[in-house]
Automatic annotation (TrEMBL):
GO terms (BP aspect): DNA-templated transcription initiation
InterPro entries, sorted: RNA_pol_sigma-70-like (IPR039425), RNA_pol_sigma-70_dom (IPR014284), RNA_pol_sigma70_r2 (IPR007627), RNA_pol_sigma70_r4_t2 (IPR013249), RNA_pol_sigma_r2 (IPR013325), RNA_pol_sigma_r3/r4-like (IPR013324), WH-like_DNA-bd_sf (IPR036388)
Protein name per its UniProtKB record: RNA polymerase sigma-E factor
Family: Belongs to the sigma-70 factor family. ECF subfamily.
Entry keyword set: Sigma factor, Transcription, Transcription regulation
RNA polymerase sigma-70 region domain boundaries: 29-99
Record-linked Gene3D superfamilies: 1.10.1740.10, Winged helix-like DNA-binding domain superfamily/Winged helix DNA-binding domain
One MF term in the entry's GO annotations: DNA binding
Organism whose genome encodes this protein: Lysobacter enzymogenes
Domain RNA polymerase sigma factor 70 region 4 type: 126-174
Signal peptide: none
Highest taxon of source: Bacteria
Pfam family of the protein (one): Sigma70_r4_2
Region named Disordered: 98-121
Amino acid sequence: MSSFAIDVPETLLARARAGDGAAFEQIYRWFERPVFTLAVRIAGDRDEATEVLQETMLKVLTRIGDFRGHRDGSGTPFWGWLRQIAVNEALMRLRSRRRHEHADSEDEHLADDRAPPPPAAADAAALGRALAQLPEATRSVLWLYHAEGYTHEEIATLMQRSISFSKSQLARGGRRLRQLLEPEQAHA
């Protein structure tokens, strides 16, 4: 389950829609850490993540009246709506500073992207350091796919790339992450 999966009472949303600053502050506090964490994982930089957090929350504040909720059981939960804004903001910032990555995604055979992570992945600090060494686009795809549960189709749409780009970045990133997390096997 995503760290965004926080049930926000309809009464709190109604107060926020009505302009109640205390209600919005409560929403901000509940979602500050998940938005920041997501942004760091996608952008790879704490300063960028802070900007993503601020832009996301500003958009939530100005657009909360647009959120219709899931009162009838068929719509998106608030946390899903907010998470989508955060992902879009992080990817938009990533696109705006992205260097021209020339990923040749058509000629590479894809590894199984559902392979379990290496045992070292249990060490969150080592995983964070390894993720930081990956190119921005690769890190974003890995995070969106494995941590946030997005499909290749959704990632392709969000990143304005092809499905094969998403798949190749996931395969390449997975291989590189395994290398970074298991350096002793690289020397054998």
